[in-house]
Amino acid sequence: MEGLKDFIEIEDGSLIVKDRTNLLNALDSILYEAVFEENEEKKKTHLEAIKEISKAEGIIPASIQGLYEEMGKNYLGFTVPAINIRGLTYDVARVVFRKALEHNVGAFILNHARKRCCINVWS
Q1: pLDDT surpasses 80 at 38
Q2: 56, 51, 53, 42: which is closest to 1 by C-alpha?
Q3: Long-range contact pairs involving 33-42 (C-beta distance under 8 Å, separation at least 24)
């Protein structure tokens, strides 16, 4: 995590991104360390860093409920595509976001299913 000091700084309690390009290139290794680190304190530090970097870049987890409520009042038939990823989630999510940005896509839902479930319907 020491290498992050080249890319970010903390100013008045807020994280500021100094070198976005190199920071984004370093995120893969930070994520890898966050997932596979055995020391729980270090893992927590990596995950917190990813969350704070995301917030500094304007990426926040959110609910789409408000959008559905508003669109339901004024735009009948409006829908938002949902993508449920089960395997290779990080790699698939990167491709989805890259293509969404490339094609100026509006709202979409990206969901990660932690457990595989199957529903069988018999008539």
Answers
A1: yes
A2: 42
A3: none
Range(s) of the domain holding residue 40: 1-61
Predicted confidence at residue 94, as pLDDT, reads 86
The DSSP output letter for 97 is: H
Q: Which residue has the tokens 């993508």?
A: 83
Q: Tell whether the model's pLDDT for residue 1 goes beyond 50.
A: yes
> Shortest CA distance to 53 belongs to which of 25, 23, 28?
23
Q: Is 123 inside any structural domain?
A: no
pLDDT at 123 over 60: no
Co-location of 67 and 49 in the same domain:
no
Tell me how far apart the alpha carbons of residues 5 and 61 are, in angstroms, rounded to a whole number: 25
* Average pLDDT rounded to a whole number, residues 41-47: 88
* Other Cβ atoms closer than 10 A to 92: 15
Residues 11 and 52 in one domain: yes
